[in-house]
Amino acid sequence: MARETLTKIFTPFFTTEEQGKGTGLGLYTVYSIVKEHHGTIEVESHPGAGTRFLICFPRIEAPAREPLAFTELQPSKGRETVLLVEDEEAIRTMLSQSLRNLGYTILEASDGVSALQVFADYGKAVHLLVSDVVMPRMSGTDLYDRLRAQKPELKALFMSGYPREVISARVVRDEEMELLAKPFTVQTLASRIREILDR
Predict the structure, then answer these.
(1) In this structure, are residues 197 and 109 in contact, taking their beta carbons and an 8 Å threshold?
(2) In the prediction, which pLDDT does 116 show?
(3) What is the spatial distance between Cα 27 and Cα 63, in angstroms, rounded to a whole number?
(4) What is the C-alpha separation between 82 and 96, in angstroms, rounded?
(5) Secondary structure class of 24 (helix, strand, coil)
(6) Dmax over Cα atoms in the chain, in whole Å?
(7) Cα–Cα distance between 102 and 75 in angstroms, integer?
(8) How confident is the model at residue 53 (pLDDT cuts 50, 70, 90)?
């Protein structure tokens, strides 16, 4: 990799792939996991010579924890209708299928403008908006404002790969946001959805 590319590889959503062919979350996910476990990650790369990653974790003396029972790892299920708005097709497809497998009815849209049309065309109750925050054409929070004008009781869960501090510069109602930081597991998403719907 060239030096300019090398400085961006751990940035959320940065990718050298064509649009729609890469999410830019792979190395960011690795970086997040390493940092969460107090490790370090270094990379050396030169065009035509390959790339080398060095990952180091601190040594600990504590015994390994017992693994969680399989039943504890099952994502929460539901029967409600969720409007899922995500501009990255690969992420949207994966989340949509995972939530359908848990029993939810999923309406999909690639951006806020499309979501307004999907919402209008559906004609039945939509219980929850799950939306990326930063999207082309319309932000997730602006979309939520437009939808709540039609359905005040609509609940929302926002997703973002950006830190909350970055988002708060764009979103006035920061303290009101139910925000899920990317990357996340299906279990975490399902748990947050269930928590919001049951509140």
Answers:
(1) no
(2) 97
(3) 29
(4) 9
(5) coil
(6) 58
(7) 8
(8) very high
